[in-house]
Amino acid sequence: MMKNILKFASAVAAVAVLSGCAMTPVMPPRGILYTEQKAPLFQAQTTGTLKGKASATNVLLLFGWGDCSLKTAAQKAGITKIKNVDYEYTNVFIFYQDFTVVVYGEKEDGQGDKNPNAGHK
Fold first, then answer.
1. What is the spatial distance between Cα 48 and Cα 103, in angstroms, rounded to a whole number?
2. Residue 121 — very low, low, confident or very high, per pLDDT cuts 50/70/90?
């Protein structure tokens, strides 16, 4: 009985750890105690001149809040045509995690900041 529980727990842990690999084109190596990373969420050839962010956070793996949807990130910047999406991830052991979606794009009518470096760090 205990052996079956251990096998099941191991399988669940493996799925939880490995499931992120199938979701993004780039998954940088993560630290157990601390991680701060930026990477593409979707592959794209171009970026827009507008940039919007939306985040979700959790504390102690017990309390989580936020809206890190593409729609929210786009709305914050007035983007109606998404061209590229990145993510930012911060983790401090089990104490704090933050996941931010970064959306790049344009307004549908093409009116964005005409500076190609605007909004990019």
1. 9
2. very low
Residue 54 pairs in a beta bridge with 101
Residue bearing tokens 């991830």: 89
- Average of per-residue pLDDT across 41-62: 90
Share of the chain above pLDDT 90, in %: 50
Per-domain residue ranges of the chain: 25-121
CB 52 within 8 A of CB 74: yes
CA 54 to chain centre: 9
Contact criterion met (CB below 8 Å) for 83 and 106? yes
Rounded Cα gap, residues 43 and 121, in angstroms: 19
